[in-house]
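Per reviewer request, we include the raw input and output of the structure prediction for the construct analysed in the revised manuscript.
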Amino acid sequence: MASSLNRFRQIPTFGVDTIRRFSNNVSAMKKLAARDFEDMLQCCIPAFEGLLPDHEANERLVTLLYHTAEWHALAKLRMHTEQTLSSLERSTAEFGRLLRQFRDFTAEKYVTYETPRELEARQRHAAATAASSAQPRAPITRRRMVLNLNTYKFHALGDYAAQIRRFGTTDGYSTQIVSVYVLYLSRVNF
């Protein structure tokens, strides 16, 4: 895993603000903005390629990452036609199939745990809770993490195309536009 994090650091910047330089440890980045997640998504295939020792699992991972980027690109188009929305619907179905396939055949093979930062946060919370109670505290160990597709975020993916038809493109209600405008105003001393 450490090698993939180092690979992110080796990816060069692109444009003024298209792809920004990654930190030394991408998994420890705090307070990420949407653009940070987008940069990671656009650069993750070369960073994760060869990460898993099993060739078939590695192919599944790279394919899933590619379809994730494809789905994201279709979902954030600023202008849609019926054809692009149909492409988004097909991409959503394929993305869901690949996610379930990854969960069933790849994620089950690998035991994953929470990051050290997540463990430290749980330990701090437990210490604060224990300080207010008289009960002795059991030692806290790293929690096993599993891929859970039974969440609202995954469930709502199927509604994107219908919502774009109903309300318009997602750029109309993004906070990124506001952020850029605030930066512009600060530069012109408004």
